[in-house]
Amino acid sequence: MIGPDKKKLYPNENIKTVCYISNLPKRANVEIGDYTYYSDNKKCPEKFYDNIEHHYEFLGDKLIIGKFCAIAEGVNFIMNGANHRMDGITTYPFNIFGGGWEKVTPTVEDLPFKGDTVIGNDVWIGQYVTIMPGIKIGDGAIIAANSTVVKDVEPYAIYGGNPAKFIKKRFNDEQIELLLKLQWWNWDEEKIFDNLEMLTSKLGLEKLTERL
């Protein structure tokens, strides 16, 4: 076998603060790609699902995370179940408290719905980032620590702040187009192993272009 075992929860048995979250018990409406890891020094990484908040199966929204993503501790995914009805005079959720107030329980159609939350491949999300419902983050993007992501993020872009704003592109447009066509994260284990130096070096993109 080349490389770590993607089917193991802990790819490195000596590091119990990092796990491949695709190997956690399956959860409805959550899809996670191979080699994507969650790192948490304060609690077991197996608790990753605790960071997916207000995710109710009856709403049907999905959290989809691609391959080879790096997710730091304290990252929170806020799903559509957090939304309150906003077309009335007040947003207060009377219905959840009972006592007759349940007569104004909204239907699913009454509530704001932003769709699925989709994280691309090779995305690095810094610690204590909050990602709001329905956000799409493109392949190769980086989200700075302590950011709140309220709008979609383009591939290979760096965003940061609250609310998170565009900082810069990681590469020029031509290089980004090439990388999106390349989709190295879909290579087999042997091809990734053979190209590790190029994938991780400063001049890797130039060298990789020459070889392909």
UniProtKB/TrEMBL annotation:
Keywords noted in UniProt = Acyltransferase, Antibiotic resistance, Repeat, Transferase
- The organism's superkingdom is given as Bacteria
Q: What's a single GO BP term from this record?
A: response to antibiotic
One example GO MF annotation: acyltransferase activity
Q: Which NCBIfam families match?
A: Vat_ABCDEFH
Q: Which family does it belong to?
A: Belongs to the transferase hexapeptide repeat family.
Q: What protein am I looking at?
A: Transferase hexapeptide repeat containing protein
Species of origin reads Alkaliphilus metalliredigens (strain QYMF)
